[in-house]
Write a structure and sequence with these properties.
Helix content: 25-40%
Number of strands: 8
Strand content: 15-25%
Structural class: alpha+beta
CATH class of the domain at 31-101: Alpha Beta
Radius of gyration: 23 Å
Number of helices: 4
Strand order of the largest sheet: 3-4-5
């Protein structure tokens, strides 16, 4: 994507392009690469190399679907969605994983380690760490 700066078009550097590609790959690591259906179970291969077997009865959006409708579920070309057009059902692959596994595969919140965070944690630790909670007396 070309950026504009003071009315001029700025062409990104090779390094900026590579960083953007890496961010895109990280965002889509939990997208599907392939989907197969066999005897009531979806076999979903993810772009990051993981493979997941999902019983169809665990997918709430397909609870009322007939066997032929379940067999018609497809992975979208980008791998981010399971779709069943006849039922007008679209299921986010990362959202499905979050619902079934209980964690947000794409969330990295709070886990990032930067030099500034490490330095701040060490400085706070040198001060004695987090202050203890002091119980307060109820006012009457």
């Amino acid at each position: 994507m070309l950026k504009k700066s003071q009315g001029r078009v700025v062409i990104p550097t090779e390094n900026e392009i590579e960083e953007a590609r890496a961010r895109g790959e990280a965002r889509t690591a939990y997208y599907g690469r392939s989907l197969k259906y066999d005897h009531g179970i979806f076999h979903l291969a993810l772009r990051n190399g993981l493979a997941v077997r999902i019983p169809t009865k665990m997918i709430a959006e397909l609870a009322a679907a007939t066997p032929s409708q379940i067999r018609a579920v497809r992975l979208t070309p980008d791998g981010g969605t399971l779709e069943q057009r006849q039922l007008d059902v679209d299921i986010s692959v990362p959202g499905l994983l979050r619902d079934l596994l209980g964690f947000d595969a794409q969330s990295r919140g709070g886990k990032a380690r930067s030099a500034a965070k490490v330095a701040a944690a060490r400085a706070n630790g040198a001060k004695g760490g987090r202050p203890k909670k002091v119980p307060t007396l109820p006012t009457t």
